[in-house]
Amino acid sequence: MKRKSHPLLGIHSVLMMIFIYVPILLIIIYSFNNTRLSGDWEGFTFDWYASLMTDDHVLEALMNSLTVGIVSTIVATLLGTVGALSLRGLGRRWKGSMNGLMYLPVIIPDIIMGLSLLVLFNQMHVPLGKATVIIAHITFSMSYVYVVVTARLAGMGKQLEEAAADLGATPWQTFRHVTWPQIFPGVISGALIAFTMSLDDFMVSFFVAGPSSTTLPIYIYGQVKRGISPEINALCTLLIVVSVVLILLAQFFLNRGKGQKKHKMLPI
Q: Cα separations (Å) of 63 from 40, 90, 219?
């Protein structure tokens, strides 16, 4: 017999959704407003989106964000996956300690992460630029990949790998034909999350970016200080859409991997 939830819980959920999503919805709506006055609605237009495509500063910030996001995602995915695989065989005590260290960049405040990396680069006399932004993004993105891949490894167990070894498979054959197909959805999901976090990051990038490495979030912040314009609303809308699509894709790959696993475990 199902327990009925209290009506106040439903009201609370609705109010929470309104509080979270109404400001985002307003940004999206006013990105199509046919006037520069944000408070007045004067009609529907796509002009602000078209003007973004001809703005050299926006295009430069976009290319910086894509470059940083792609490079940092590739490296973070590789390091996070290898880290999850290598720490899998550790004892419980050491594994718990290493997991805590790998989870730390996820829970540590962004301002502390950005400031600590800035101090590190200054101490090492590394000039701030695109390279420092990439290194910073790898630092926090790697943990997201590690968390997702570790969860996939914990869910698959070691029975299939042990069975493959008993049948004479080499460690490489076991990894290629057993482990990798099982964790691949998690690797893709972790990579998509890492790219999303890189694309949306402002705080860490703000500390370690140089004058020629302005990313889209930093560009938006600089423009908002002068006032909210329809172009900024349009740019924020595009970032929202891309972020939502990437998160949905990451969730799709995770669910697909779980479905494949259940299907393979069904008795024949």
A: 33, 41, 12
6-29 pLDDT, tens digit each: 677 778 788 888 888 888 888 888
Q: Per this entry, what is the length of the chain? A: 268
Give 231-244 pLDDT, tens digit per residue. Answer: 888 888 888 888 88
Q: For residue 33, report the phi and psi dihedrals to the nearest 5 degrees.
A: -75, 135
Of 223, 172, 196, whose CA–CA distance to 51 is shortest? 223
Host H or E run for residue 136:
helix 130-156
Could you tell me which of 260, 100, 106 has the C-alpha nearest to residue 190? 106
Give me the domains of the chain, ranges plus CATH numbers: 47-261 (1.10.3720.10)
Quote the tokens at residue 109. Answer: 């405040």
Q: Is the pTM of this model over 0.85?
A: no
Contact 116, 135 (CB under 8 A): no
Q: DSSP secondary structure string, 194-244? A: HHHHHHH--HHHHHH--TT---HHHHHHHHHTT---HHHHHHHHHHHHHHH
Task: Specify the residue for token string 């990105």.
Answer: 31
**33 residue type, one letter:** N
